Amino acid sequence: MITTEALDRDEVQGVLALPINPNGLGVLVLTGSSGRVDTELAETFARLGASALALRWWGGRGQPPGINEVPLEIIVRGVDELEAHGCTRIAVHGTSFGALAALLTAIRDERIDLVIAVSPASVVWQNSGPGLDRSEWPPRSAFSWRGSALPCVMFDPRKWPPTGTVSPRYRGLHEASLETFAEDAQAAAIPVELSQAEYIFVAGGDDALWPSDAAAHALAARLRNGGRGATVIEHPGAGHSPVYPGETPRPAPAERAWGGSPEADKALGAVAWRAIIEHLGLT
Questions:
Q1: pLDDT, tens digit, for every residue of 130-172?
Q2: Phi then psi for 202, rounded to 5 degrees?
Q3: How far is CA 218 from CA 43, 120, 176, 269, in A?
Q4: CA-based diameter of the chain, in Å?
Q5: Strands of 124-265, DSSP E
Q6: Strand 143-145 relative to strand 231-235: parallel, antiparallel, unpaired?
Q7: Which 3 state secondary structure label does DSSP give 76?
Q8: Which residues, 6 or more positions from 130, have their beta carbon under 8 angstroms from its beta carbon?
Q9: CB 268 within 8 A of CB 232
């Protein structure tokens, strides 16, 4: 049995799911550019004994309306909330841009013990949507820390899918931008080795949005070069949105393709979920 509470404070917004008998584990759940609050996943973790917070980290009151210089302090306050509820171990489950937010925050907040990065990127990208000034232009970093924008990679304007393309695949845009702006990519690389957290990377080889499979291996390589390990879980036919067992599949938005297939996305999700539950000791 669990209880849920909608949080709408200036500091923390989202849904908090609490088990009747908490086990000391806290899980922060971050979605990506959908902007939704993943109450379903938070409740699933709570039913297994973890205190879980599905955090609204952009698009809420007082927050940037897009993923545009989003202060990582918003994520830190989510960790504060779980700690205030007695959590002594903290895991952050992030998907897509939420995976970036999780990785970047773990570098700066030593309380985070595990990052589960689903369909991650290995660099900070430019903004997706408007900032606090209500404008998307000029392009800026997706994230900030202590009032300063993080180095990022801009999109190569020559590589945008043609106007009118139905369900465009943006993977090529991201890959080309990494090559065109190679120096910026080096500066914007996410130094996961600076965190003491453990890592699980989940990626599909047919991710149509960005090369999350290559990113997962790049992030794992950084850890290996520092004498650390990481768990990489992948499926060659899966796309940008793996589906966990019992989870409601989410259709790809019309403005972008996710790739993959229902069968492959579920297969990747099943393997990933087993690894996550085992790693968190929730079996």
A1: 999 999 999 999 999 999 999 999 999 999 998 888 899 999 9
A2: -125, 125
A3: 32, 10, 17, 21
A4: 55
A5: 143-145, 148-149, 198-204, 231-235
A6: unpaired
A7: helix
A8: 64, 65, 66, 68, 136
A9: no
Q: CA-to-CA distance for 273 and 242, rounded, in angstroms?
A: 10
Q: Which of 98, 87, 88, 96 is nearest to 14 (CA)?
A: 98
User: What are the backbone dihedrals phi and psi of residue 187, each rounded to the nearest 5 degrees, phi first?
Assistant: -70, -30
State the Cα–Cα distance between residues 250 and 136, nearest whole angstrom. 26
Q: What is the mean pLDDT of residues 185-202?
A: 98
User: What's the N-to-C CA distance of the chain in angstroms?
Assistant: 17
Predicted local confidence at residue 250, as pLDDT: 82
Helix (H) or strand (E) holding 28: strand 25-30
Average pLDDT rounded to a whole number, residues 210-215: 98
Cβ proximity of 195 and 204 under 8 Å:
no
Determine if the pTM surpasses 0.70: yes
Which residues fall within 8 angstroms of residue 94, CB to CB, at 6 or more apart? 30, 32, 100, 101, 102, 103, 115, 116, 117, 118, 120
Question: Sheet holding 2-8: strands in order across?
Answer: 2-8, 13-19, 51-55, 25-30, 89-95, 112-118, 198-204, 231-235
Tokens of 237: 């036919």
Q: Residue 188's CB: how many other CB atoms inside 10 A?
A: 22
